[in-house]
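User: Assemble these into one structure.

Assistant: Restating your components, then the assembled model:
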Amino acid sequence: MADPIKVVQYGLGPIGIAAAKLVLEKKNLQLVGGIDIDPSKVGQDIGDVLRIQRKLGTLISDDAEGVLSQTRPDVVLHSTVSFLNRVEDQLQICCRAKASVVSSCEELFYPFRRDAVFSQRIDELAKKHGVTVMATGVNPGFSMDVLPLAMTSVCTRVEKVFATRIVDAAKRRLPLQKKIGAGLPPEEFRQLVSMGKLGHIGLVESLHAVADRLGLEFDEIKETIDPKVADAAVHTPYLKVKTGHVAGILHVAIGLNRGEEIVKLELQMYVGAERSVDSVRIVGEPPIELILAGGIFGDTATIARMVNAIPIVHGSQPGLFTAMDLPVPFCIK
Amino acid sequence: MADPIKVVQYGLGPIGIAAAKLVLEKKNLQLVGGIDIDPSKVGQDIGDVLRIQRKLGTLISDDAEGVLSQTRPDVVLHSTVSFLNRVEDQLQICCRAKASVVSSCEELFYPFRRDAVFSQRIDELAKKHGVTVMATGVNPGFSMDVLPLAMTSVCTRVEKVFATRIVDAAKRRLPLQKKIGAGLPPEEFRQLVSMGKLGHIGLVESLHAVADRLGLEFDEIKETIDPKVADAAVHTPYLKVKTGHVAGILHVAIGLNRGEEIVKLELQMYVGAERSVDSVRIVGEPPIELILAGGIFGDTATIARMVNAIPIVHGSQPGLFTAMDLPVPFCIK
């Protein structure tokens, strides 16, 4: 049997903790270290922070370079923040330590349009150190980009792509319910949107990823973020939404050409959604109509995509890649 | 702009003709030659055999080595026969001519279980000549293997995989309607099955591909081929099926472990099916229920998968690969 792939978890928030626990369950992966800046976690045994009823004999540290030089991981599972300008230092540290990176950073899923220069810097650094950097998750990273694109592989011609993701947020964790503005009065929601503090990160990344691959050109991009207002009170285990207050978010990104919507990604995340569902519709030859009844449960899917990608990234050529450039992962044992 | 990828079409039956026509529609592909052994096609201009109302200035030849050495293609689109033991010479000729291969040969989709020695020989030859060999199509090659496996990438755990493909064969071409036994009396159907002359080729390949990737182990494999008997007469543009005669085929492959069905692939292809549909159900965490309403139209999808895979195979490392080892293609312009 092959040596296990050594993994360091960088960022031990809710996603990082769940990802690290999943690494422990996988046969050919070995969790060798953890990095976090939270003072309440630094110095703790990773096992204690994961609440797995056993020590792992490795302490969480805020010294990323120290952890990486000591543990020499093959791959870093990176889940700290969502924005390019806040992850560059972290990615550089990983590359210099000759560790490949699987990140959940939403903007890193398809960074080329937002910051071509950043992308080139990371690509060059990764190549210099012989490592691979990629970001994935479920959205961005699968349901509204990788999956629709994969479905176009059976098409001889594609004119339009539509993807809708409806998520019953009542089943998701509290940070997500807050992220979608659940419980707020509509005016407060709109204020937060105007301050850039509400909205799904990565939707425009998915839009560009789909269009660029398919050679579909936009002359206009529209992005709207609206509140989904509750017409009846909704209670979740975490919070209450009064009638007339915000149940969640309606976030839509549309790429147009001469006034026609050619790619449309529509995300509806709110507490009280009747049923979660993901769907993809492709206008082309042949037309495609895909429905994922019950949707893809986001919290689980994000960490699954990350952990399942570890062997793929470990075996890849060096450089900065997207999830579309590499073989699609499958569920590893 | 990059130089176009030079393509030779090897095999100009219905699939090969459709694939070659699609190559002509694609911006970055260039059709440079055609190979077929049919005396009625040898010596004809490819354009005439494709019935595109124009000459291409290149004649179809039965001399594969001659065509390849003269035209020096980057990639050969190979669609001749379905069986490993009949394609080895053809694949060797392509490898020696330093041309990569995208094949529709069903058994080549996942050849390792059926013939490990063949697979090793082709892999070594491909590596020696710096080319890539892979086979794809829609089934095998997508709907019952690549797609279910890609869906498991969002799962932390997979226990069982079920895929069903229901095809209304009335909309497909005549060779396919004959291949599924449409119009035969049931006893003749059963006789042909017992002689190995009826049944979908590649279903067991898909079964193994799914199980091997996911580390699911079978202690028993069941394969059944039964006639779908028409309860009412059906007429297609090509043939008539009397009541009580065969409308098509029910082909099922099941992998069991201790009597439990852990992977089940069920293909129903018959004239008069109410609606075509593809579906995938994954028992795992999270569970997945995927439905492709209207199904994936097979004839179009097969050539789309092949032609869309050309840039992927052209850019790949050398060797014999499966469609799961390489990035999923997308619809190229």
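Chain A has a mean pLDDT of 95.
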